[in-house]
Amino acid sequence: MNKKSDFHASAEQINKLKTVIEESRSVKGCLMHVLQEAQTIFGYLPIEVQTIIAEGLGISLSEVYGVATFYSQFSLTPKGKHRISICLGTACYVKGSDKILEEVQKVLGIACGECTEDGLFSIDSCRCVGACGLAPVMMIDNDVYGKLKPEMVKDILKKYTDKEANK
Amino acid sequence: METKMINLKINGIPVSVPEGTTILEASRKAHIEIPTLCFLKDVNCVGSCRMCVVEATGARGLVAACVYPVAEGMEVRTNTEKCRQSRKMTLELFLSKHKKKCLSCERNHNCELQKLSLGYSVDEDRFKGEDFVLPIDTSTPYVVRDNDKCINCMRCVAACKKQNVNAIGPIGRGFNVHIGSAFDRPLAESPCVGCGQCIVACPVGALSEKSNVDEVWKALSDSSKKVIFYTAPSVRATLGEAFDLPIGTNVEGKMVAAIRRLNPYAVFNMDVTADLTIMEEASELINRIKTNKPLPMFTSCCPAWIKFIEQTYPEFIPHISTCKSPQQMFGALIKSYWCEKHDINPKDVFVVSVIPCTAKKYEAQREQMPDDVDVALTTRELARMIKTAGIKFTELPDEEFDNPFAVGSGAGTIFGATGGVMEAALRTAAHMLDGNFEVLDFFAVRGTKGIKEATYLVAGHTLHVAVVSGLDNARTLVEQIKSGEKSFDFVEVMSCPGGCVNGGGQPTLSDSVRNSVELKEARAKALYSSDNNNELRRSADSPVMTLLYEEFLGFPNSHKAHEILHTSYKAHKTI
Known about the structure:
Strand content of chain B: 5-15%
Order of helices and strands of chain A: HHHHEHHEEEH
CATH class of the largest domain in chain A: Alpha Beta
CATH superfamily of the largest domain in chain A: Glutaredoxin
Helix content of chain B: 25-40%
CATH architecture of the largest domain in chain A: 3-Layer(aba) Sandwich
Structural class of chain B: alpha/beta
Radius of gyration of chain A: 18 Å
Strand content of chain A: 5-15%
Shape of chain B: globular
Structural class of chain A: alpha+beta
Largest interface: A-B, 16 and 14 residues
Number of domains of chain B: 3
Strand order of the largest sheet of chain A: 2-1-3-4
Radius of gyration of chain B: 25 Å
Number of strands of chain A: 4
Number of domains of chain A: 2
Strand order of the largest sheet of chain B: 2-1-5-3-4
Oligomer: heterodimer
CATH topology of the largest domain in chain B: Rossmann fold
CATH class of the largest domain in chain B: Alpha Beta
Number of helices of chain B: 20
Number of strands of chain B: 18
C-alpha cells in the first residue's frame, strides 16, 4: 500500500522544523534528534520532510533515509487518528500476540505499519509496554487492553468507530 | 618525529611495523594474506564482515584484523582452527541468503565470495535462508543492481561516499537491510552520476555494468551492418589485466588484433578524437580568454562530471566546454565525414565505442546526441567478448589500427589519466598562442594527487589551471571557485580518482591485488611511457588533424565543427 505521498503541511509546521534544524545543525550526531522532532511535528517522516532535513543539515537524503528506516520509532507513513500498538515482546508473543496482530490486520484490512484509507486507524507493533502480567497486550492511543483473545478485537475496535460515528 | 616501531609475531614470524598499523597490514610484512570481504584499501574499513578474524594475544575472542592495531609483543595467529571455523560459518551465513546463480554470474571465477567459499570448503546450503527476492534495479543505462547477490559489505556505499555523491546507502534493519537509493527509488532518480566506482568496489556480482554485449554480437552477425569499433586511450593500459598480464602492460597491438578477430568493419583509435577534442577545446579556451566569456572553462570529456554539474551546480553549465567528448566526437565523425567519404548510409553503420567507463553508456544516450554512438562497451565487456570468441589474447601478434583513424598523438593517449587532458590542451593551446612555445612536458599537472594547481606564462597570458580527479575533490574546487577563494582559467575534471585508468568500467581485480598495489599509478605509467615514445606529442601536429580540417571541418570551432563536434547541457533535478 505504497500510496503516493499526499503530504500537506502548514507554514507553521515547516518553520518549526526549520528552527529545530537551525538549532541542532552544529551538534554532531544531531540527525536522530531532528528526526524525532520532525516526527512530533508532522506525525511521520515523508520524503518532503526528509528532504528538508537533508538539505538543512547538509547531508545526503540517502543517509537520512537510512537512519529513518533503521529505527522502528520512525514512521514513513501517516499515522491514524487512533494508533494501535500491539506488543510483540517475549511475554506477549508466547501468549499469542501474533494472533492478535493478525486479527487486527484482518479486521482493518491493512498491514502492520499502515494506516486505513479513512485515516482512523494505524497499526504498529512494539516491544513490551511493561504490562507483561496482562499479556497479550494491545494499546490504542493511551488505553491498554490486556488478556486479549482474537475474538475480542472486533468489539474493541467497534468502540472507536462508534465513537467517531456519533460525533 | 620518528615513528615508534612495534615488534610482534605473526604465525611465529617476527615483524616490525610502525605504531598504529593494523594486523592486516602487518601480516603482509610476513607475506601472509588474511582473507577479507568488506575491507577495501582507500575505500572501506569498517570491520563488519568478520572474514579477517584472527587470534591475537591480549585480545578477548577473535578480532577483525582490518581494524585491530598491533601491540608490542603481540602474537597473532591467522590460520588456527578457531579462525577457520569462524570464517567458514561466516561464509555459510552469507550464502544462506545469497542468490547462488554463479554459472551465469558476471563475476564467476572473479568473485571474492566464491574464492573464499572454495578455500574454506563451505556447504553453501547449510543454512536454508528465508527467500528474499528483491527487485533488480535496471533503471539506469549503465549499472544493474541485484541485491539478492549483495552481502551488505558496504563497499559500494563507501565508494559512493568517497565520491561524495551519496546516491546509495543501507536501508532498513536486521534481515531486511539492503542497499539502495533514498525512499527505495530507482537509482535513475537518485543523484548517481554513473561513475561506476561502486561496481569495481563490489566483491561479488551484486553490481555490474548494464551489458550491451549481446547487441554487439547481433550487429556483428548482421551482414547489412558495418560495425566500427574504436577504443579509448586507457583501455590499452588495462585490458591486459583481464588476461592475467601485469598491471600497466600496454596491450594496444594485441587489443587491435583481438578486436579485428571479432570481424568488425574497422578498428579505429580514439586517441584521434582525443586530439580533435584538444583542437576544439584549446581553441575554445583561447576564444573564451580573448572575448571575456565565462572562466574557468571546465573540461567536458567526463560524462559523470557533466551529469554531476547539471544536477548539483547548474549555475556552472556556461563554464563547461561545449566540446563533445572524444567518444561522441568519434561517432559523429564516422556518421558524417567517414560515411560521406565512403558513400555509406550512416544507418548501415553500427558504432561501438570501447571505454573504461560506465557513465559513457549514459552519455551515448544523452538527448542532445542520441545517434552518435550505438553502443558503449566497457573494458570488461570487451574482455568477455574476446574470451567468448576463443581468441588467444596473449598469443596474438601486435597489429595496428585502421586508417584513416589509426594514429593519435601522445597527447591523445594521456587523456586516460588525471592531468592528461590538461597537459594535452596546454601543449596545443600554448603553441596556438605562441608559435615558438616548445615546452611539451607539463610535470606539475601529472600524478595522482586529487587536486593539482599550476600557473603557466604563455605569450603574455598567465594561465591559472587546476586538475582534479574524484568527484569529492571536484566539489571542493567548485565550492572554492564559487566562493571566490580561488580562480582559474582552465580546469580539468575526471570523476574517477586517478582518471579513466581507474574508471568504473575497468577490469575488476581481486582484493589481494587491490589492497596491495597502487593501481592508478601503475596503469597511468603505461600511458605516459607511450606518450614519451610517440614522435607526435602535440595534437595539432597530427597528420590526421590536418586531414580532417582540410578535407572536412575547415578550422577549429568552425561552423561545421560546431554542428558536429559540440553539444549543449541542461540542468536536471534528482531526489
